[in-house]
Amino acid sequence: MSRHFLTIADIGDRDLAAIYEMALSPFDDTTLQGQGVALVFERPSLRTRASSSSAVSELGGFATFFSDEEIGLDTRESAEDVGRTLAQMYAICAARIRHHEVFARMASATQDQMSLINLLSDVAHPTQAVADVLTLAEHFADGHVKDLAGLKVAYVGDATNVTRSLAVALLRLGVDVTVGAPEGYQLTRGGLEDPSSLSGGGTLRLTDSAVNAVAGVDAVYTDAWVSMGFEDEAAKRRADLADFRVTTQLMDHAKPTAVLLHCLPAHRGDEITDEVLDSAASLVWRQVFHRRSAMLGVLRWIKEET
User: Which pLDDT does position 1 carry in this prediction?
Assistant: First the structure.
């Protein structure tokens, strides 16, 4: 049976630790030799495509990109038939999709013959969370993920799939997470990637004040207010979230040594100002670098390296 990487919550502590380790340790460039990875993108992404294709190549495999126009999940062809087709030619399918339930349908249709990687769904963004953990560990703990315990991280703005995966990953490492968001944009209980369901580890705190969220934290994280699929709500979202813009004034409430994270693309002037995004405190380009690291770790884990 193939391994899948669909949410952080799915992965046990031992396997997650192995992914973090394999993301940065020396690797065999023949791990995927002769094997293909299908990159299925219902939604576009510069960093996800670049990091996925480069990681596959570095491990000796080959990647083929399929856009929404080429496949048309459940419009041109059912998700099941797409999965069955790809499983005839590829060892792994890494997909960036609109509806998370497609993964379960593909796995069932292919009888788990093909490994599945979630490159983003409406439920979770686990590869981004791995990259974020690696970025924080590099900055605060000399690369030692387990030494992040006790760190304080605030996420401000629209709490999304990114927030969920990030919070689950950090809480399990003993990091305290605060999510600052207005009513209607805050985390809700339930779902496959649910940080509120965790016991032990770090603490999760929710607040409707950006200032309260970032007070005394080591890292401030934000994301776009107007994500793909919400363009019609752009004006309302900008008004509702205006008090959660990450500015130099907001960063002043965090620790003087606090860093800034953003999974990109950034809408400069909306959720974040140029002064913060381009400041010395910004780790966004190390996050980009570690998107590749994260994919290396996930791919190596899927191939069951020891």
Answer: 76
pLDDT for residue 270: 96
- CA distances to 2, 13, 290 from 84, rounded to whole Å, are 14, 31, 31
Check residue 226 and give its pLDDT: 87
The closest of 220, 244, 240, 11 to 124, measured between CA atoms, is 11
pLDDT at 305: 67
Structure tokens belonging to residue 290: 């570690």
The pair of structure tokens assigned to 25 is 């340790």
CA distances from 249 to 7, 151, 156, 165, 212 (A): 34, 22, 14, 27, 13
Q: Cα–Cα distance between 247 and 5 in angstroms, integer?
A: 35
The residue among 21, 7, 3, 12 whose CA lies nearest residue 293 is: 21
Task: Count Cβ neighbours within 10 Å for each residue of 84-112 and write b for 16 or more, e otherwise.
Answer: bebbeebbbbbbbbeebebbebbbebbee
In whole angstroms, give the CA distance from residue 176 to residue 280.
24
**First CA to last CA distance, the chain:** 17
Go through the domains of the chain in sequence order and give each one's CATH number: 13-125+291-302 (3.40.50.1370), 126-287 (3.40.50.1370)
d(CA 243, CA 75) in angstroms, rounded, equals 40
Predicted TM-score (pTM) of this structure: 0.97
Whose tokens are 């999965």? That residue is 83
CA angle, residues 296, 3, 188, in degrees to nearest 5? 85
Extract the residue ranges of the chain whose pLDDT is less than 50: 306
Strand partners, 260: 220, 282
Inter-CA distances, 161 with 47, 98, 192, Å? 17, 11, 11
